[in-house]
Amino acid sequence: MKKYFIIFATLILAACGILDDKYKRPETPVPPAWKNGDSSSGTLPDAEWWKGFNSQRLTSLIEESLAANYDIKVAIAQVREADAQAKIAGAPLLPSLGANAGVSRQRQPSALKTVVVSSNNNSARSNIFNTYSTGLNASYEVDFWGKNWAAAENALATAEQNRFNQETVKLTVTSGVATTYFAILGTEDRLAAAKNNLKAANELLQAYRDRFAQGIANDLDVAQQESLVAAQAAAIPPLELQIKQSSDALAILLGKNPEALDIPQSGLKELTAPAVSPGMPSELLQRRPDVARAEAALIAANANINSARDAFFPAITLTGQRGYESPQLSQLFTPQSILWNIAAGLTQPIFEGGAIEGGWDLTKARYEEMLQDYHKAVVSAFSDTEDALVAVQQDAEEEKAETESVRVSQKAYDLTLLQFKQGIIDITTVLNTQRALFTAQDALVQAKLAHLQAIVQLYNALGGGWKGEAQVPSVLKQLPKQAF
Fold first, then answer.
1. How many domains would you assign to the chain?
2. Looking at the whole model, is its pTM more than 0.85?
3. 288 within domain boundaries
């Protein structure tokens, strides 16, 4: 009990000074430059970053997802919920006003009819009378300590947080559509290459069988080529399964049933790999909606601390009423029928079993939790960007190396096939160069896919071109300021 009153006295003294702990953005270390990227190369992402891949089909898919994705629709509904909560939380900052009107008919026991005047005024002894009344009543809690304003500020920050979350969800969905679509195209390229390679392997197998029939080749030559054909045929079903699974995932992102999705077999050749600039590290935090969302949650938690602290202080309520009351309806609005009253009340919590102190401790712990989440969001933003930058660089180099590998492998295969037909080399050399070519072709497609998906991840890490504040409706921003 003594501890409770010490805290109360301390807070009263603090209230005589600054009653509101204003939010201050936490200090966060910002790297001076990127380790793995040049801020001057390429262009910064814009709001429609996906158009940099020069794919009309990709653009139409992303636009479709923005209109129909269920996660985005959920986020939009959450924004509306938060706006409504902000309006509710802001209501106590304004007086409440109500109107009333009524009529009553009443009979008193005969022993009490000495001073009653009846509604028809015909008998002073009648114990039945009417009463007519109408008026306005108002009440207002003086927000002396800022408790109501802190609650409204919390709701407003929550509304902003939900808007930032909506932007984060949109970025996640659009990048998911792009990476999934690229995966479908890349797997289609791998499938096409596998089918072409299977066709080539079968043609060579038939040549071996013809030569075996002529006594030129032996059983081992045919068996080795049959083994290669079987391996190539076995690679096709998993690729077809990957296409089906990726198509189903894309359909979910588009908010439609899988059977309603139609993906043309165009492959990765339709895409252009855009050059992307990460900009300066100091600019990143203003372009990440998830960081803005984490800070909005921190602001809301700070406002909750103020609201919980103010629960220790007394509440001052003003009430007033003005109206008319008369036993006769014809005389209701006459000056003689006017009535009014004004009252003020003060309530002070004395003992709540530790509930108020516990609530204050809870909000402080919640603020500390949100503070650590904010720091984590900042660190993750820089880490995501660094990872994406190095992935783009490494995947671009790998694609270049795989392109050269395919060129060399194709040349080697063509030469060995020619020499085999001339009887210069045996089938083992042909099989080795054939396997090397097939492997290189598949690796090249995967390298192209990885490069394109790394660029998408870089766009995602840079905030996808998002920048600016949440567009909170002006009606929510125009809440009245606290009086003190």
1. 1
2. no
3. yes
